[in-house]
Design goal:
Blueprint lengths: L1 E7 L3 H13 L2 E8 L6 H15 L5 E3 L20 E4 L2 E4 L19 H11 L4 E5 L4 H9 L7 E7 L14 H5 L1 H8 L5 E4 L1 H4 L4 E2 H8 L4 H20 L6 E2 L4 H8 L4 E6 L2 E3 L10 E3 L11 E7 L1 H12 L6
């Protein structure tokens, strides 16, 4: 089985990504590292523990960085925290501060996430795949702290970046925007990097009807995934992002890609960079569209996804969870 470390900032779509990774049975999940992002890192860590306990999983959780490596960028939207809006005293949020699950009984490990990453990778007898579905602060610091970990990494798969679109600014995706310096460190590290971008994730939204199909599976994981999709869709409606009838669920697509690369229908080998210049394009994923067949390039960018295959993979995994 592929050895995997999953780096998250657990909100709603991270939770479904965790469930897909665990329930697929396809990975030797060495640990889940947690970063700040959708919520403060402490809340993201507790959310992570709650999701794993729902599944009966004992995968260790390591709390990591509470801030970006260099600076916070100012989002170009006037809402409290990029993911929420308050109307008549009610918060509608893409990412709940606490998961609608029983409180976690377990605790995070005593070791910092970055230390865990460095020590685990340096000791690895075979290459490890890193999947980062939040701001890449933990990964950026690990590569900065010990550059030799690159020799022990099979691939880094980001849910991050966008080409000619954005969701925090007109040109920047949230995860890369929240820590563009860290993203740049990883992209420049020389390891194989695959970016599962908004271009791919936005092509495969879930409908409310499909949320109902997940709930009808009769598993706790299916019901929880359905709740999260509905929470996201309702918040999107109040935020003015959609009509609330369908909702992209970004992060699990990074896991789905590892399970079956065919879920990404348009993957291009392109040289990449991140804008960190301090201007309007801060956090933007910059891709070179020329020389796409250059075999010296180590970065891959996704532009499309197979909606039916992606949804089927999520449903099949959620059906394996504990009964509701």
């Amino acid at each position: 089985m592929r050895k995997l470390i999953l780096d998250v900032d657990t909100g709603s779509d991270d939770a479904i990504a965790i469930m897909l990774a665990v329930l697929s049975g396809a990975f030797d999940l060495l640990g889940v590292t947690v970063c700040w992002g959708n919520r403060p890192v402490e809340a993201c860590a507790q959310n992570t523990l709650q999701v794993l306990e729902l599944l009966g999983s004992d995968v260790p959780v390591y709390q990591g960085c509470p801030e970006p490596m260099v600076r916070h960028l100012l989002p170009a939207r006037h809402i409290p925290n990029d993911v929420s809006i308050i109307e008549d005293g009610v918060e509608y949020t893409i990412h709940p501060a606490a998961m609608p699950l029983p409180p976690a009984r377990g605790h995070v490990q005593g070791k910092h996430a970055v230390s865990f990453l460095v020590e685990t990778l340096m000791a690895a007898q075979e290459p490890v795949t890193l999947v980062a579905v939040g701001p890449p602060t933990n990964l950026g610091l690990a590569f900065r702290m010990e550059p030799r970990i690159r020799d022990h990494v099979a691939e880094v798969v980001f849910m991050g970046g966008a080409v000619d679109m954005g969701n925090v600014t007109p040109v920047a995706e949230a995860n890369f925007f929240h820590d563009p310096e860290a993203a740049k460190i990883v992209l420049d590290s020389g390891v194989k990097v695959t970016c599962i971008t908004l271009n791919a994730t936005m092509a495969s939204p879930f409908t409310l009807a499909e949320a109902g199909e997940l709930e009808a599976l009769g598993t706790a994981s299916g019901a929880f995934a359905a709740d999260l999709i509905r929470i996201r869709a309702e918040a999107s409606r109040h935020l003015g992002w959609s009509d609330g009838t369908l909702e992209p669920v970004h992060d699990p697509l990074a896991i789905a890609y590892l399970l079956n690369p065919a879920v990404i229908t348009d993957l291009r080998r392109q040289r990449c960079n991140i804008d960190i210049s301090g201007g309007f394009a801060d956090g933007m994923l910059i891709v070179e569209h020329r020389n796409e067949n250059d075999r010296s390039v180590n970065t891959y960018v996704s532009y499309g996804s197979d909606c039916a295959l992606y949804h089927r993979m999520v449903k099949e995994a959620m059906a394996k969870g504990p009964k509701a």
